[in-house]
Amino acid sequence: MSTDELAGVHPAWLPPAAFRAIAARRVAVHGTGTLVDTVRAEVGATVDEDAELVLRVTGEVGALGEEGFELYRRDGVTVVLAGAPAGLLYGFFHVVRLGEAAFTGERPVERHLPAMRRRMLDHWDNVAVNPVMGQVERGYSGGSIFWRDGAQCDLARVRAYGRLLAATGVNAITINNVNVQAAAARLLTDRLGEVAAVAGVLRPYGIRVHLSVNFAAPVMLGGLPTADPLDEGVRAWWAETTRRVYEAIPDFGGYVVKADSEGQPGPFGYGRDHADGANVLADALAPFGGVVHWRAFVYNHRQDWRDRSTDRARAAYDHFAPLDGKFRDNAILQVKYGPIDFQTREPISPVIAAMPATNVAVELQVTQEYTGQQRHACYLGPMWSEVLGFPLTPDRDVAGLAKELIAVSNVGDDRFWTGHPLAQANLYAFGRFAWDPSLDPLSILDEWIDLALGPDVDRAALHAILDDSWRTYESYTAPLGVGFMVRPGHHYGPDVDGYEYTPWGTYHFADRDGVGVDRTRATGTGFTGQYPRPWSDVYESLERCPDELLLFFHHVPYGHVLHSGSTVIQHIYDTHFAGAERTVEMRRLWERLAGQVDADLDARVRERLDEQVRSAAEWRDQINTYFYRKSGVPDEKGRTIY
Ligand code: GCU
């Protein structure tokens, strides 16, 4: 696999050293099929007798399913049993993760099954460079690994990516941006060969390829006069187009659709609802076992900021909850974890609990659009752990309500894959959480450290940098769940009023007396009413609402006292001073890694930490100054505010 494309590319969590424990042992591999061959190729030489590691497909899928495996160690032999080849691949990479520990002592039988049937990464890669968004929308790791200059890249990089993803348990990817422009739309038809080529290199890693499609494709590509989902000609066009896709790619995953959202076409344009829209695609895919992922990110992005009755947070529920039960079985509603847009802190989207008769997938953002754009170190594992474990209904948490976990990838053609080398940990953690949402985020971080940086680096320093980095980022950016306050457009760095008088629906309503969005039923937009109990009551109540979400749900005076005992204004000052200070500490801690990691990686991390320190100070000063000028309330501790 090692070609020029991969020269100098960091091995991420699969460096040769990660295979040391296996390479030192006699390994037997039993089974047939492409994925078993992949395992064989990973192992190198295999033996028939006296193996210390036995990897075996039993031939009966049974309770292990297609992807599960069992692991045990008895009498000096470590055994992985899988019901099917995919399970063997995941079992093999589990042994890689364990390293020497897989070959010590006895191990009782452990059964490993994925919690989510589909564990998918979405790429927002454009085929042709978009004049505003570039090659990768919200990409902070260089160009696309799929396309360069409008043409398909050498796929060695994609193959290496597939291998990395398989080692985390990811089993599906969408290769192109949800905003499907003209060139990308053609991936469905005359450029289908490019999709087939990608599917070909990812197949040995158990990863299926999905495609974002434009809802208006029947018009754009088919020359039809309409894309109305109830039109017979449109239905026939999707059916025939999809049949051709499966002719070229028999294990094609399906379509992803962003419709009636931020300018994309959709069923509303034809007076139809979103179940009508999703079902026409679902019907075209059903004969081949494909699925359509239909995004719930639908809201009015041409809102009048003067209009206080429209609330963007309400939009997805208002559009989709009434449609529960109307979607086909192979349609999956893809819901962002929060009601707005991947903010550092948001409440959980009430849509996740509102559609018991619909397949729901939860969407996360590994790419750090709103969490520092891979210039800031921000380990998102703790956030995702909170999201997935959140008890949204009395008997189920978010992970239990979701059928699938999906995230926007943070990968590009950067030599460290993710721009910031430490952002690799986020990509790694996504796959691990999708497999098992109950994993401890800090143990996942340890796995990544062991594999990617080796077991001998200063682990304590890395934990001190990363464990709380999400909360640190939160502390120096928009306060108490109010969100945004970023520069419009690129979304990097502070601009408190940047979105305040725009049509985007992301406001904080700060005035001389207070700040926050009143989303209560009593006096506000009524958004709290979209939650099941107890959350509809907890969020409605000024007394019970958790501090970290206070300004998402309530407009309060600056003197309002939080559960923490601090006033809102003093909390803003204190967290912003502390957060910026913390980044200085993070940069200092990294010094301890000097000489323990590659010089290139070291240099890259230093450069990023310097920028994080600069940027956090900018955030601190703009936010503190803004609120000091609005409120006139001085900092109790007399620190410098401008
Ligand atoms: C965000 C992001 C867009 C993206 C959109 C989406 O708004 O800024 O670039 O297209 O999410 O999820 O569709």
From TrEMBL:
InterPro entries given in the database record: A-glucoronidase_C_sf, GH, Glyco_hydro_67_C, Glyco_hydro_67_cat, Hex-like_dom2
SUPFAM superfamilies: (Trans)glycosidases, beta-N-acetylhexosaminidase-like domain
Domain of life: Bacteria
Entry protein name: Alpha-glucuronidase
Organism: Phytohabitans maris
PANTHER family recorded: ALPHA-GLUCURONIDASE A (PTHR39207)
UniProt keyword list: Hydrolase
Keyword check for Iron: no
Glycosyl hydrolase family 67 C-terminal domain sequence ranges: 418-639
Domain Glycosyl hydrolase family 67 catalytic: 112-395
